[in-house]
Structure prediction request, 166 residues.
Amino acid sequence: MDWSWDGVKSLLSNTAPMLGAALGGPAGGAVGGLIAQALGVEETPEAIEAELRKDPTALLKLKGLEADLERARIETRGQVVQAEAKGESWLQRNWRPLTMIWFGFLIGGYWFGYTPPNLSEDAILALFSLMKLGLGGYVIGRSAEKITETATGSGLIQKLMNRGKQ
Prediction:
């Protein structure tokens, strides 16, 4: 039996790209199981592919599954950030900003020529990527929080937490 998920990944590439990509990762079998369960078919690539080709609404079910998984991921991240912000330890509350400040100093040192001569260009580019990722996530996250707070009277994290309680 061929346990290749390539056919299913191809069918999902436009409608539910995160599920399709996850099928190719180390958790591919588990993701395949979720898909099979959502479609009510046997947990094989062939059964899933056949159902996707046969039933046009199957892709919509999987798009909904993908949206549910993304919502859960965002809520979990929000819970982690909120728990860190409410933590008892100063370090627990501030490790993210401190990490970004440290990367900022490293990049500043690079610009002023204070880097070891054996530091590879790949390592420097990795630091720049981390800084862009962290700064972008912080700015976007804070912007979303401020916009939501202005529009609704409560913050985005609080809004997500309240939605989970309903």
Summary: The mean pLDDT is 78. Residues 124 and 138 are 21 Å apart (CA to CA).
